[in-house]
Fold these 4 entries.
Entry 1:
Amino acid sequence: MFIVKKIKNVINTYGIVEAILIVKSYIFWRIFNYFKLLIIGVKLGKGIIFEGIVRVSGGKRVTIGDNARIGRGVVLDAGKDGKIEIGCNTYIGMNTIIVANSEVKIGSNCLISPFCYIIDTDHGTALGENIRNQSYISLPVIIGNDVWLGTHCVILKGVKLEDGVVIGAGGIANKSISENMVAVGVPARPIKTRK
């Protein structure tokens, strides 16, 4: 049903010839990404929609749940020991980058807006050695169910966003945020509870 509505909207907006090209492109990327990710070992649920090219490393340690929607240009980078899990019915907006050297877990029914950056790692900063030569420090990032990250949000290592959290556009979460809180700013601070 969703695809039929989308096709009708495209025809009304662009005309029949352009609509055919857009639909062919849409179907091509969905099929291309699905098989590419299967080949590298990503665990894929049913009904996933890919809006364009998706880059994945560490395929066997990446799981995408049923009916997830992944925007074009998304990067899923599960490092040597990292694990990425995306829940059912979750949307990951275009050009979002998720990096896991430990674990990044995103719950179900989440909305991750375009251009977000989620990372469970940073570098050591001890004096006496170049920062770039120091070991990574990794702590899991856990994002609960029904969470909304506005565009350009950054979620840093060790953060737990409980169920129902909203982070306003451009927010940087460097500390955990309690259930159903709306947080904004740099660093993101709770300003109210969802009602």
Note: The CA atoms of residues 159 and 175 lie 5 Å apart.
Entry 2:
Amino acid sequence: MATVDPWTSAAFCTYCSRPLTRPGRLSDNRAMSVPASEAPAGDFRAKTADAPISAQRGNGSPQLATGRSAESTPPPYPIHRFTVAEYEQIGRLGILDEDSNVELLEGWIVPKMTKYPPHDSTIDLIHYLLAKLLPGGWFVRVQNVVVTDDSEPEPDLAVVRGEPGGYRDGHPSGPDVGLIIEVADATVGRDRRKAKIYARAGIPHYWIVNLEERQIETLAQPISGGPDAVYQSRLILREDDSAVTVTLDGAIVGSLRVRDILR
């Protein structure tokens, strides 16, 4: 029996909470949900791109199965969802490391998406443009952790307070962040869903640079409503629009031409 991770539509084994299917275009790492007390030694990451992972533990490493994947039927009892503290403990134990290519979203450990050249090139471009206009006391972090009450997403870009090197003792959280930007190609659905995570954290501005639809979706004015937190303002800018403004602490500090970002 299995349950389904809402972020990836991956099926998880009810008994060991390991992933049983590979959903769509994902990275070479699978979604995982294993309580630290049950985590086997060794590497969780499957080395074969399209084979499901067996629930058998064997010598402590995942075994590749050749049979059918499990049904995505919810179990009669809840499976484990991780807290931020548990997720960080898993990292400290070495079960996950910087090569695991996962992030924590609303208690689920999910794989980050495969990176494609247009995606990475757009990140480089926005980083370059932002760095030229930010005032002192702010800088850009690229694909690094932002911590919230129930998540540790790694957004493509985050404009945060302070100076580079200033977060050695802890990741930035909502009050430290002025703007988050996600660049979406095949990930736009996931990035729109992330809006409620960022709104709950009180992050004032969130952009989705939607490469497939050639537009920038800007969200602002978060309202914290528990699980249903939303941004009150949503504006879509397309290539024929002039510019998107960068606002920090309620003041406009500059603007970027939409065409320059989507070129």
Note: Helices lie at 84-92, 117-133, 188-200, 258-262.
Entry 3:
Amino acid sequence: MLVTMHGMMDEQFLVGLSQKVHPGQEGRVLKGLNPGSRCYRYKNVPIEDPTRHGIYGRLAVEGVRCEILPTEAAIVRRMFGMYADGYGFATIAGKKVSRARPASDNQRVDASELRIVSEELWRRTHDANTRKVTATPEQVQAEANGLKAPQ
């Protein structure tokens, strides 16, 4: 019975915590700041407050904004382009897509001002992702061989 009570209390704590955290994250997003940890292929740039000092004598950080890493933007554009052209995830992952560093925590954020790819390529990729296509055995075999999937 004690374990049940602790479980209920833990659950209530997590519900209350999420109700406090989510509005704070939403407010950061609305201000154009990063609400969480590092985003894939972006650089976190701290926004410091010159009027306040944080711990260790450094300036206090008001927030963090994301900046596109230009050296890695071409890789992301290539992967989006391949997907929009009809390649599947397995085929794209099998290609020798050069990476400057290993993938870190991946998070999805839809902020058009931070988009690495053009609006037209984003639309093509989104259309390719949302359409429901039943692949024929020939298409599956072509994709497995690394060829462009026949339409």
Note: Strands lie at 42-53, 59-68.
Entry 4:
Amino acid sequence: MYFKQFSFAGSAKWAVKRSRRTVGMEACSSAHHWARFLSDCGHARKPMAADIVAPFRKSQGAKNDRNDAQAILTAVRQPDMRFLSVKSVDQQAMLAWHSARAGSCRTRTEFSSGQLLPAKAGRPHRGGRCHRQDLTDKRLAEPRVPGGGREPA
């Protein structure tokens, strides 16, 4: 186990220079990239979900790189540990697209639901997304909409 912090470039240089090893890592947004890179360098990579590594952390209150490294080392040595499969670049791109779309749908739903607020101030809501823009223009211009519901002038 190494207690040395690296930059991204330093990590790459370190991985290329080392003989083949087993590298445990906590899964995050860049873990799949690093797992692919380590595989190309000949290392065995073992990504684990963060919630599986968390119980192995000695100090639950102090989450830092050193404690995380010790927890990952302990977890990777467990005989019945579940490891994640490494996603390809195309799989990651598809997941990113789905995440962006889900966020867009969530925002649209929140916006549509937000139109009910002016309706509660005295005007009935005419349902559906097709009426959303003209509702927004009309309702936000009304003086009956509370100040927090209008855009700043």
Note: The longest strand covers residues 22-26.
